[in-house]
């Protein structure tokens, strides 16, 4: 009896290891899951920040585009072009100075068609990758192919 | 003994961890209670307001060749988060803005040092003083904004802490005052006034939407775009507009006139190719043209005479002799006169107890109807309206020509003019005589042009219009030509055109353009006042079209109160000629001889 008891007493590390393992395993599992959540959230946040940056850039570029378009239109306005033509020595022609030539198959220039304004868009949730919105459980099920 | 080093290490780790935690706590306290706490609180408040109104881009306006007439440019308001201001930044913001934008330093500094927080205002928009003691938000363009942004991003630049640039869309008109009355303008609140901007405001502006703000990265989503406004292509040809305006300005200056108008229209489809108005309207500086209730300038609210935006559609006048075209058209169409019918002009006629005389007071003796038109005889036309047509038929024709009715042109502010018919309580029989030569009846310039356009277009009267194309996100829409009616037959139109063509090459040869057969009529109208007609001033006008073989343009010229000569034949007819000389080149219309030669060959 005494020998058996002694044998039991001699292996406390086994108990400690079991206890430690039993405690640490769920902890490590939790840490892994937490880490995964953190990683996904970090990616999500980075992507969100990227989206916000892109939106800011888009707005800025649209503003610059509009500014340049207006500047171009102003620089090519009839008044400016007229003054420039005068400066280069041109003048209006009189009807008697015009020579008319008959051209076979002359195609007059096509009428101008203005560019279409951007259509209204509503991206909604469908345009975001599910990786940014799905839960771990959903991801796991997707991974299993269920 | 062996455990000592490990304990020291544990202690060190704990100290480091404690230090990190302490640093974090200190930082949290700084954020919560430090000098920038109000700024962070402000950001939190902004984030708390979850919804944001997104305004769509206003539609762009083009001329018929695709040149931009109205577009959108960024403009920036200067806003200040007052709780972020420091003593240094207040001074440096005031210094930078006063230098860069030429503003009084004290005015800007005063706004920055004012106790806004006590009034519950944490964010203010900087303003500048304008006339009348009123204030207007300071705005800067992209270039100035770039400079200020550079300062804000550079730690070595002046301290502009608290200042921010808030972008806002603004309307730009690259052609300046060219066609300004046609285009109208958009105020700072984005509302369109007058012209195309006013008439098509609902279409151009699009529809704003409300969205949730996306300040938090985790909540960032692709933002929906609001439905944008439509783009418009006008019938206006900017080259013709430029040419017409240039000639009009030269005329106004040369004749010392008060104002003037020129309209060029295609009589076949009603497309307005040019509409020049003097004095001009610069949509980039629209403040004087705002309605009184919208204006910030107190002095201008007291002005007795408000400026009329686009008087070609919103202003009415007594047309004078150009109106004889309509009277003669009615008589010819009713078969009551012929071009060769003789009339003995005694120099005066009495209609309804009112004696009517010719413009020169002379008796012109035996005249044909052609001669009546050529010499613009009031007596003859009063005879035609009173003795030949009679009131019911005369006014029926006037209504058919759209006199007293709006044309429906797509420009804001159109008025209908005034036509007193026998049903009107103020109508007298003498009106029948005076109306025949354009007195006692008020029309708008566009109305008269539309009516006479029927003569140029084989009797068919079409609605004038400015918009050629409406381009929306879903496609392109081309407004169709609208026929307003056919007041006279094709034969009548051709007969009258022939008469007016002959008369044009006769007395009013100031309007003659070699190589082209044109038709037209001068007008010299007296200006009615409170005490009868003003003996000093007239409205000199001319309406002409061509080429007679296939009219492709009709031109209306009006010069108000010219000093050099009161007569339309002297003041307005040469303007018509000058315009047509250039117009036939721009529209690529060959002279009649070439055209006839081509026809023979074909």
Brief sketch in words of this structure:
By secondary structure, chain A is mostly helical. Chain A has four helices and no strands.
Describe the 3D structure.
- Chain A contains four helices and no strands.
- Chain A has 146 residues and is mostly helical.
- Helices cover 62% and strands 0% of the residues of chain A.
- Chain B is of the alpha+beta class.
- Chain B has a domain of 357 residues: Beta-lactamase (3-Layer(aba) Sandwich).
- In chain B, a hairpin with a 5-residue loop joins strand 9 and strand 10.
- The longest helix of chain B has 31 residues.
- Chains A and B meet through helix 2 and helix 3 of A and strand 3, strand 12, helix 9, strand 22 and helix 20 of B.
Secondary structure category of chain A: mainly alpha
Number of strands of chain B: 27
- Which CATH C-level class of the domain at 238-301 and 309-601 in chain B is it? Alpha Beta
Question: C-alpha Rg of chain B, in Å?
Answer: 34 Å
Shape of chain B: elongated
CATH topology descriptor of the domain at 238-301 and 309-601 in chain B: Beta-lactamase
Shape estimate of chain A = rod-shaped
**Separation of the first and last Cα atoms of chain B:** 122 Å
| pLDDT < 50 runs, ≥5 residues of chain B | 298-304
Largest sheet of chain B: 8 strands, mixed
Oligomer: heterodimer
* Strand/helix succession of chain A: HHHH
By DSSP (H or I, 4+ residues per run), the number of helices of chain B equals: 21
